[in-house]
């Protein structure tokens, strides 16, 4: 059963009313077709109004929806012959990062992404999508392999941030993230990253140094969570709604500031409503990115990525 978000309550109540009338009609000799049709029209208009005018905090809630499609679900829909690879060849394997080789419309690609769970058991296994350093080292191993064999790299970003625990620090969390940033900047193959849920801090950026960075319509991308920012700025995490507005963390804000390249529309109500349809929305953007980047040679790819990140930022005097 899908979780109901606060801003969706008027929609839920109207759906319940429609279901009630439909049940009454089917069990009684009463024709309420006209009333039901009117309510469905109102529902359609209400959904369009609410989902196209969401506040930043509403989008944060959609990005965190427990049924939001994960990296593995998009891999199943977008790629053929996916073969997962494991381990960083230093310490072990990290289930919070999924990485492997597959085909995108008959072209070989390397796919890497954060992986969270859909329930408590899977979230524990995946560490709630928060990678340890071995996860980032696994990702880098696959990136260097892709570079060796000339395969484009596609990354899916969906994490609250890198795991901040003692074990992760002992194994070099900061170094692992920093090395990914440096190595990704110089990769000689195209890199396309898509933020599919939450893009939090360096844990997200470790897969985000790409030629093209895209975001799903209701995803977020920032250096810290709204709750964390509110705690630091105002010593009150309950002000997270105001923080979300001030931080400019939505796809719409980031596109306006030219930090991302393209916003990928979501199905009405959010990607969790129809993962298959959402994947098709993503397919066109991926195809276009790979087509554009595929026309560049190695030096042009590196220069393109360098200029992208050098040009980020708005300066006033």
From TrEMBL:
GO terms for molecular function: acetyl-CoA carboxylase activity. Pathway: Lipid metabolism; malonyl-CoA biosynthesis; malonyl-CoA from acetyl-CoA: step 1/1. Keywords: ATP-binding, Cytoplasm, Fatty acid biosynthesis, Fatty acid metabolism, Ligase, Lipid biosynthesis, Lipid metabolism, Nucleotide-binding, Transferase. It is an enzyme of class 2 (transferase). Transmembrane segments: none annotated. SUPFAM superfamilies: ClpP/crotonase. It holds the Pfam family ACCA. Its EC number is 2.1.3.15. It catalyses: N(6)-carboxybiotinyl-L-lysyl-[protein] + acetyl-CoA = N(6)-biotinyl-L-lysyl-[protein] + malonyl-CoA. Residues 38-292 form the CoA carboxyltransferase C-terminal domain. InterPro entries: Acetyl_CoA_COase_a_su, ClpP/crotonase-like_dom_sf, COA_CT_C. PROSITE patterns: COA_CT_CTER. The keyword Cell wall biogenesis/degradation does not apply. Its main location: cytoplasm. It is found in: Cytoplasm. PANTHER family: ACETYL-COENZYME A CARBOXYLASE CARBOXYL TRANSFERASE SUBUNIT ALPHA (PTHR42853), ACETYL-COENZYME A CARBOXYLASE CARBOXYL TRANSFERASE SUBUNIT ALPHA, CHLOROPLASTIC (PTHR42853:SF3). Component of the acetyl coenzyme A carboxylase (ACC) complex. First, biotin carboxylase catalyzes the carboxylation of biotin on its carrier protein (BCCP) and then the CO(2) group is transferred by the carboxyltransferase to acetyl-CoA to form malonyl-CoA. Acetyl-CoA carboxylase is a heterohexamer composed of biotin carboxyl carrier protein (AccB), biotin carboxylase (AccC) and two subunits each of ACCase subunit alpha (AccA) and ACCase subunit beta (AccD). Belongs to the AccA family. This is Acetyl-coenzyme A carboxylase carboxyl transferase subunit alpha. It comes from Sporosarcina saromensis.
């Amino acid at each position: 059963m899908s979780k109901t978000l606060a801003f969706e309550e008027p929609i839920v109540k109207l759906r319940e009313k429609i279901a009630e009338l439909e049940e009454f009609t089917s069990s009684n000799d009463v024709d309420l077709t006209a009333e039901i049709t009117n309510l469905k029209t109102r529902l359609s208009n209400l959904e369009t109004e609410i989902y196209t005018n969401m506040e930043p905090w509403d989008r944060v809630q959609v990005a965190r929806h427990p049924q939001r499609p994960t990296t593995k679900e998009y891999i199943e829909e977008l790629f053929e012959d996916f073969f997962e690879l494991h381990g960083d060849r230093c310490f072990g394997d990290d289930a919070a990062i999924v990485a492997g080789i597959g085909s995108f419309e008959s072209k070989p690609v390397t796919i890497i992404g954060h992986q969270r769970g859909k329930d408590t058991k899977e979230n524990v296994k995946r560490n709630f999508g928060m990678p340890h350093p071995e996860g980032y080292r696994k990702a880098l191993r696959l990136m260097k392999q892709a570079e060796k064999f000339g395969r484009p790299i596609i990354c899916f970003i969906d994490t609250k941030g890198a795991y901040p625990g003692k074990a992760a620090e002992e194994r070099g969390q900061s170094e692992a993230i920093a090395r990914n940033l440096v190595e990704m900047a110089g990769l000689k193959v195209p890199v396309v990253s898509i933020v599919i849920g939450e893009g939090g801090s360096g844990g997200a950026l470790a897969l985000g140094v790409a030629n093209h960075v895209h975001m799903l319509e209701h995803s977020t991308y920032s250096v810290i969570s709204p709750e964390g920012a509110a705690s630091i700025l105002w010593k009150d995490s309950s002000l997270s709604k105001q923080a979300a507005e001030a931080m400019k963390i939505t796809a719409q804000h980031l596109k306006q500031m030219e930090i991302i390249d393209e916003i990928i529309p979501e199905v009405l109500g959010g990607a969790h409503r129809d993962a298959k349809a959402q994947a098709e929305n993503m397919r066109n953007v991926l195809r276009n990115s790979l087509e554009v980047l595929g026309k560049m040679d190695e030096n042009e790819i590196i220069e393109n990525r360098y200029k992208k990140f050098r040009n980020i930022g708005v300066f006033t005097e």
